């Protein structure tokens, strides 16, 4: 028996044609699935009424268990019980922080790290797929039918590789991805539309393993992400880790087994949660050695040992605001997302910074899933009457390598997606028939300081003089943030393209240091850019003169020719010496030396053009 | 002639209308379609049509067009939970047979 939901006026679905769609918050620590029922977004609970599914999978020789069932084995079977796998998505082994303190048997592999379990070698994509599979089963039981698709949320900082890995995991779990949505944007959907708000909002999202800050502008139903920032390796888990370290120190414990470490980490997490509503948390545990831990963690100690973590988040908040060009008093509200934002010291720090109470009226654990459900409902074609558009941004600029190792930015950082940008380029040398297109990501002016994303060649350009070919390079970033680049020579139509799927992505530290680098080195970069440009210009001039000498060398006397060649040699030396002023001076000198030569070549070309034509013909042309 | 809501159904309808922020009640009806002849219509109502027949049940206004009413007379709309699934259910005495899934029916 099908149970019906209330539709919008005139929009009852025909039987068997209801389009079931869900929003999935695939979290580091916990995951949720939500849907829209009778116009209202709700989180779907499991049989026991629990909304969260711990993002934990335990592998045994005869299969796998997920969620709470898997979590109970964290202490007894840590090696086969994989948690916080989101941190490994699209990551290589060397990208993983604290890997020596993790209980897993990692295997290095090209592209993504792998984990050796009792059920064989698993990639993070497969582990995530098992979590998604459990959510899909829950959703299909709750909705009484097959899903047409899901919106899955990802941290705003996820790069191409991480997004692609998430999509692959969904595919493996048999879920059609309607769209990947940035988590803070999903939170804003949950809040913004329900409350009909307008203005600039900050989304402070401290989850289990990631921190995101986003500055959003909501106006007349349009969401625009003004800037994003954060730290993809900072979350509630790190607060647990700090308490764990404090326990080790306070109880003077020797190095522990994995089982004991896991036990104490659980005690640390319980203590943290207890402190949200109490001033002192008791921390007691009996270790496998028989040793007993009995400590009292006060709010003051907790605040003190996590001060640097909180400060780190506030630093990212400041930067995101600066990127958006806004002052704190221009922010109308602060949306709190993620269970970790329940910690009183976080609430206090955010409140003090923005000089206002953060918004808390939706459950911070559920808000992302609820927003994703609304988006999924819309994308599945179940219109609710509210027309709204969603705009997201790219976190780092995308560009091309130019002659001399310079970066030409095509899509600037914080551009809204989906986006397509095209720019025309030309050939550098006479008769050039191929062009290498090197796609880079980053804020710096020099290629070697940015991250290389992809490289391809456009071949078959018809031979032409330098600068005559017109090559249009188009960058396209789709709604999921995935990039494709194509190049097309306009006159011949030859084309080449690439979809950027890097083997693995940028680590957060890399993004952070690249952003920081662009600020610190901006003057340095400008200087180097000017130098490189001068060098490229010098090279172009030298080639032009040499080509002229080859074709029309007979127009010069031997003495003149020697002078021109001396000037060329001087310019070549100056270009190598990396002295911009010297390059400019010697370029002017070569220019002056070849003036007469240029005039004579011009005369010769005109004579050649006129040769063999009568005065009458020319006069006739004049009259026509 | 009457169509009613169970108290549980009425509670849910009121909550949904409240969260939706607008709407005067619930519109029920039947349409010819589906694998077994007819299908139910269950929608929010934003306004009343001239020939609508109105009922009131547990504080919820129910609107039905006159053509649909004969097929729905005596129906009680319930809100049910089956395992993880939950939603509205038509307990309609006029139904002779329904398709396996219950989404469409015959009178």
From TrEMBL, chain A:
Entries under Gene3D superfamilies matching the protein: 1.20.1270.10, 3.30.420.40, Actin, Chain A, domain 4, Substrate Binding Domain Of DNAk, Chain A, domain 1
GO biological process: iron-sulfur cluster assembly
Xref: InterPro entries: ATPase_NBD (IPR043129), Heat_shock_70_CS (IPR018181), HSP70_C_sf (IPR029048), HSP70_peptide-bd_sf (IPR029047), Hsp_70_fam (IPR013126), ISC_FeS_clus_asmbl_HscA (IPR010236)
SUPFAM superfamilies: Actin-like ATPase domain, Heat shock protein 70kD (HSP70), C-terminal subdomain, Heat shock protein 70kD (HSP70), peptide-binding domain
Highest taxon in the source lineage: Bacteria
Keyword ATP-binding listed: yes
Annotated keywords: ATP-binding, Chaperone, Nucleotide-binding
Record GO terms (molecular function): ATP binding; ATP hydrolysis activity; ATP-dependent protein folding chaperone; unfolded protein binding
Pfam families: HSP70
HAMAP family on file: HscA (MF_00679)
Family stated for the protein in its record: Belongs to the heat shock protein 70 family.
Protein purpose: Chaperone involved in the maturation of iron-sulfur cluster-containing proteins. Has a low intrinsic ATPase activity which is markedly stimulated by HscB.
Alphabetized PANTHER family for the sequence: HEAT SHOCK PROTEIN 70KDA
Protein's recorded name: Chaperone protein HscA homolog
Organism: Rhodocyclus tenuis (Rhodospirillum tenue)
From TrEMBL, chain B:
Alphabetical list of PROSITE patterns matching this protein: HESB (PS01152)
Cofactor(s) the protein needs: Fe cation
Residue span(s) of domain Core: 1-103
One BP annotation, GO: iron-sulfur cluster assembly
Single GO MF annotation: 2 iron, 2 sulfur cluster binding
Entries under InterPro entries matching the protein: ATAP, ATAP_core_dom, Fe-S_cluster_asmbl/transfer, FeS_cluster_insertion_CS, HesB-like_dom_sf, IscA_proteobact
Any one GO CC term of the record: cytosol
Keyword set, alphabetical order: Iron, Metal-binding
Highest taxon above the source species: Bacteria
Membership in a protein family: Belongs to the HesB/IscA family.
NCBIfam families assigned to the protein according to its UniProt record, in alphabetical order: iron-sulfur cluster assembly accessory protein, IscA
Protein name in the entry: Iron-binding protein IscA
């Amino acid at each position: 028996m099908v149970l019906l939901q209330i539709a919008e006026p005139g929009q009852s679905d025909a039987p068997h044609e209801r389009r079931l769609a869900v929003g999935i918050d695939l979290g580091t620590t916990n995951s949720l699935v939500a849907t829209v029922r009778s116009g209202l977004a709700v989180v779907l609970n499991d049989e026991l009424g629990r909304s969260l599914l711990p993002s934990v999978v335990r592998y045994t020789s005869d299969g796998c268990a997920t969620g709470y069932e898997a979590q109970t084995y964290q202490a007894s079977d840590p090696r086969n019980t994989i948690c916080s796998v989101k941190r490994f998505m699209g990551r290589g082994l060397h990208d993983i922080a604290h890997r020596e303190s993790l209980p897993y048997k990692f295997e290095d592999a090209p592209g993504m790290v792998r984990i050796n379990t009792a059920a064989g070698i698993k990639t993070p994509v497969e582990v995530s797929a098992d979590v998604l599979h459990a959510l899909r089963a829950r959703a299909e039981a709750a909705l009484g039918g097959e899903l047409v698709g899901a919106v899955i949320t990802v941290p705003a900082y996820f790069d191409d590789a991480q997004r692609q890995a998430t999509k692959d995991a969904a595919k493996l779990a048999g879920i059609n991805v309607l769209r990947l949505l940035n988590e803070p944007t999903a939170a804003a959907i949950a809040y913004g539309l329900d409350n009909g708000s307008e203005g600039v909002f900050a989304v402070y999202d401290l989850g289990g393993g990631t921190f995101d800050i986003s500055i959003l502008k909501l106006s007349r139903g349009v969401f625009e992400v003004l800037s994003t920032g954060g730290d993809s390796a900072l979350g509630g888990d790190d607060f647990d880790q700090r308490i764990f370290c404090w326990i080790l120190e306070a109880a003077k414990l020797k190095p522990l087994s994995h089982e004991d470490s896991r036990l104490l980490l659980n005690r640390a997490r319980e203590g943290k949660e207890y402190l949200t509503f109490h001033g002192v948390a008791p921390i007691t545990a009996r270790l496998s050695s028989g040793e007993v831990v009995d400590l009292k963690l006060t709010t003051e100690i907790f605040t003190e040992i996590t001060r640097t973590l909180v400060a780190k988040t506030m630093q990212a908040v400041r930067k995101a605001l600066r990127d958006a060009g806004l002052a704190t008093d221009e922010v109308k509200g602060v949306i709190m997302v993620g269970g970790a934002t329940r910690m009183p010291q976080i609430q206090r720090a955010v409140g003090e910074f923005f000089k206002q109470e953060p918004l808390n009226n939706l459950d911070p654990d559920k808000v992302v899933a609820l927003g994703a459900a609304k988006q999924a409902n819309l994308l599945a074609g179940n219109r609710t009457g509210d027309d709204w558009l969603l705009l997201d941004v790219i976190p780092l600029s995308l560009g091309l390598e130019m002659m001399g190792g310079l970066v030409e930015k095509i899509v600037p950082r914080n551009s809204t997606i989906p986006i397509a940008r095209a720019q025309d380029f030309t050939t550098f040398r006479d008769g050039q028939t191929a062009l290498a297109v090197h796609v880079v990501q980053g804020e710096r002016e020099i290629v070697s300081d940015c991250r290389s994303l992809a490289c391809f060649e456009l071949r078959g350009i018809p031979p032409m003089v330098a600068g005559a070919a017109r090559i249009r390079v188009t960058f396209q970033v789709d709604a999921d943030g995935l990039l494709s680049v194509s190049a097309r020579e306009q006159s011949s139509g030859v084309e080449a393209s690439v979809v950027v799927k890097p083997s693995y992505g940028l680590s957060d530290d890399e993004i952070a240091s690249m952003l920081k680098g662009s600020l610190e080195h901006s003057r340095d970069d400008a200087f180097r850019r000017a130098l490189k440009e001068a060098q490229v210009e010098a090279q172009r001039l030298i080639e032009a003169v040499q080509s002229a000498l080859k074709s029309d060398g007979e127009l010069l006397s031997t003495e003149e020719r020697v002078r021109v060649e001396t000037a060329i040699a001087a310019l070549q030396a100056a270009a190598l010496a990396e002295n911009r002023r010297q390059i400019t001076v010697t370029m002017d000198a070569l220019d002056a030396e070849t003036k007469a030569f240029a005039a004579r070549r011009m005369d010769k070309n005109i004579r050649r053009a006129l040769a063999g034509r009568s005065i009458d013909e020319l006069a006739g042309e004049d009259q026509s | 002639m009457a169509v009613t809501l169970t108290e549980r159904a009425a509670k849910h309808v009121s909550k949904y209308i409240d969260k939706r922020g607008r709407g005067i009640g619930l519109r029920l009806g039947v349409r010819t379609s589906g694998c077994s002849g007819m299908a139910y219509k269950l929608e929010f109502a934003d306004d009343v049509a001239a020939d609508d027949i109105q009922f009131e049940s547990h504080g919820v206004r129910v609107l039905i067009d006159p053509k649909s009413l004969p097929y729905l007379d005596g129906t009680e709309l319930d809100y049910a939970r089956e395992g993880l699934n939950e939603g509205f259910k038509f307990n309609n005495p006029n139904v002779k047979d329904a398709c396996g899934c219950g989404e469409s029916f015959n009178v």
